[in-house]
Sequence to fold (279 residues):
Amino acid sequence: MISGKALIAGVMGDPVAHSLSPRLHGYWIERYGIDGAYIPLHVKQTHLADAVKGAFSMGFRGFNVTLPHKEAMMLLMDECDGDARRTGAVNTVTIDAVSGRISGTNTDVYGFAQNLRQTPGYGSLRKNSAMVIGAGGAARACVAALQDEGFASITLINRNRARAEQIAEALGGAIRIEPWERRHDALAGVALLVNATSLGMAGQPELDLSLDALPRDAWVSDIVYRPLMTPLLQQAASRGYVAVAGLDMLIYQAQKGFHLWYGALPEVDDALRRHLQHL
Ligand code: NDP
Fold:
């Protein structure tokens, strides 16, 4: 039950029906007995600026941003923090109720880093070399997080090479671009492989990748979370690699937004993970 003073947030996207965020935030709202609501907001690109103004006018605390608006949202912010600026994307917006100032951040960076940190054994993972496949909005956040985590070199491979080059230019540091055709052989010496494409997602083709060259002690991470065990992770697990699923990235990026809008830092536990997996 909510009152007339309820704290309101939501998620803007097009489409938005697939988003797990209402289910995730709704779980925490109920668990902490918060007088609040989190609602899906189906917003077309042409209405994005109006929707942001409207969110302020209607007293929203803020909102999440999902496909395809993460980059366009940057231009509508009064200010962006460092993670939003370096990734060129905003996934979490807060609105100051008094001044109306609208601030953007990118909590996918934190979410991906936490996804790794929560996996047992991460402390002993070699951090000499990581490889990220994909160069969309999510890949930018993954590469930024890997830089923060201290990976000495990052290889970036994308079907559209120009997009990978844009990431290398924006983020700087030791990022090497390899052509799409080299993705199998370039795995030699890699300690952490990350799939940041949408391949392997329900309704999409699998990522065509042979793991033959990947060292035996490497980890394989897939940020796709529907299904949780993607074909890539199934292949990795069957070969004895540590397989890291993407659900915790989703949960931890949301944790920061929830804290900003509703004031409570929600706990992440297995009951929540089960709640999100059983749809
Ligand atoms: P984008 O649309 O921005 O990027 C899609 C990426 O997938 C691009 O690199 C694209 O390559 C690649 N790709 C798509 N189809 C193909 C194909 N047929 N062959 C080769 N490459 C292909 O999406 P996002 O970066 O926002 O999201 C990517 C995935 O990550 C999605 O599945 C999303 O659900 C997931 N995600 C998970 C999160 C989590 O919290 N776990 C958070 C955010 C995203 P190209 O540039 O060549 O088109």
